[in-house]
């Protein structure tokens, strides 16, 4: 998912150009042509649990837990064709609206005018820095990246910015184990479901003990493994990759265990880093092979991804899986009310998981809130109208 700040800035520039200069703008969902060309989700049978919050029981709220359980009870979903389909279907919508999508275009900083208002972004193009000016900048890079790295230093200490940063901290990092297998899901008996494997009944204690352990001992005390087979959830998989399947395992990880290697180049880190990574991969694989003994002899390759991998590929501060931590502090009504799309810097808006909650659904809600704030229009009402129209059209057919 590499929709960068630049793309969003360009999109908003365009949206603003077509929005009448009244207090409220027109309904952006009024034209069906602006909707993605095809539904992204699989049919009901294939819907499975995909949303997780990454916080232990005593640190989360009842409301958050209820939201997740409800999500699961309704049946979660998996994008047909994998998560890259989300970008694939979103890009034409941006382009149709006159926007442009740039990849490998790291935003170096947010530009401010003499009045301290956001007026564009400075983007890295190879070794060059290119300045792009626009009336509104939207950052989907997360609260920490935006405030701590993209704003000029003088603005980082504005009281509004400091106050928001003081309310949250990066969430838990995860270690990923990517497993390629020979055989179809039927051959291997893989289900399109998620497995949460707990090794203790007291998750709070087990997690506390685990993260305070020396890193060499930690692989023997993994408190929880999340295991899923993405290939089994995707109805298009078999025609694209015949006779192959995948499994992924995620396990909680302390960033500190890997921190000493963060300055080393990705893919060329010292042997100590690889040894530590391998110890978590091996510990996970031994559990997986016990749970799925039928996979013996079918494993083609296994790759581990540490919090530093997340940091490199996802630009996630301290390798956090779900952005700012979803702990009790973050979910306090005062904090929730303070984390708004409208930032303390005029013309700078935040979107994505850090202004609502994590996961695809959380990030999408963040985008709706952000767009509503910019367009000064309740897009939830517009969506409701669109939903009714789509339902009515379906009934007619
Ligand atoms: C391993 C893993 C598994 C997950 N599984 C699920 C799941 O099953 N279901 C689910 O709902 N959620 C899942 N999530 C969480 C989900 O991916 C996030 O909650 C969601 O992607 C957040 O969306 P976002 O747009 O807010 O941020 P992101 O998706 O993190 O997007 C932010 C983007 O900003 C870019 N960026 C940062 N800095 C800059 C810069 N300076 N210049 C340009 N671009 C920049 C980043 O490269 C990134 O592409 C998972 C996350 C991980 C890491």
UniProtKB/TrEMBL annotation:
It catalyses: all-trans-13,14-dihydroretinol + A = all-trans-retinol + AH2. Residues 1-24 form the signal peptide. One of its GO terms (molecular function) is all-trans-retinol 13,14-reductase activity. It is found in: Endoplasmic reticulum membrane. It is a peripheral membrane protein. The keyword Cell division does not apply. GO terms for cellular component: endoplasmic reticulum membrane. Its EC number is 1.3.99.23. It is an enzyme of class 1 (oxidoreductase). Its main location: endoplasmic reticulum. Its cofactor is NADP(+); FAD; NAD(+). This is All-trans-retinol 13,14-reductase.
